[in-house]
Amino acid sequence: MKLIFALFTGLVFGVGIAISGMMNPAKVFNFFDIAGTWDPSLAFVMGGAVILTLIGYRLVWRRNAPLFESRFQIPISSAIDARLVAGSAIFGIGWGIAGFCPGAAIPALGTGRWEVVLFLAAVTAGFYARRLVASSQPTTKAA
């Protein structure tokens, strides 16, 4: 049941991305082109997502546990450190250059465009490069 619900959720997300036009990198580029062909539709899509998320969290947090898990898994750190800022900057720069975020690129695979495959290959390479860098760094234990 858990996998069926995950599939359904992914399909709803993908359909929403497709209907909103966010699989088209030109939409993203035009959102960032404030002085040129600015298109505010991305802001409306994000605003709608934020509103639905706020409503969803209000409903979900009333429960003692998620439907398909024994407990909620939430981040334990709220620190804003150099790694978070650098990762956010890299994500934003990649999004602005490519016109895709990973969430929109996955449903865009259905378009058959080579740019989407190249973007997701680069994202995957970045994940593995980060793991490689992290595994080569010495770890320190707190006292």
UniProtKB/TrEMBL annotation:
Pfam families: DUF6691. InterPro entries: DUF6691. The chain crosses the membrane at residues 42-61, 82-106, 112-129. Keywords: Membrane, Transmembrane, Transmembrane helix. This is Permease. It comes from Planktotalea frisia.
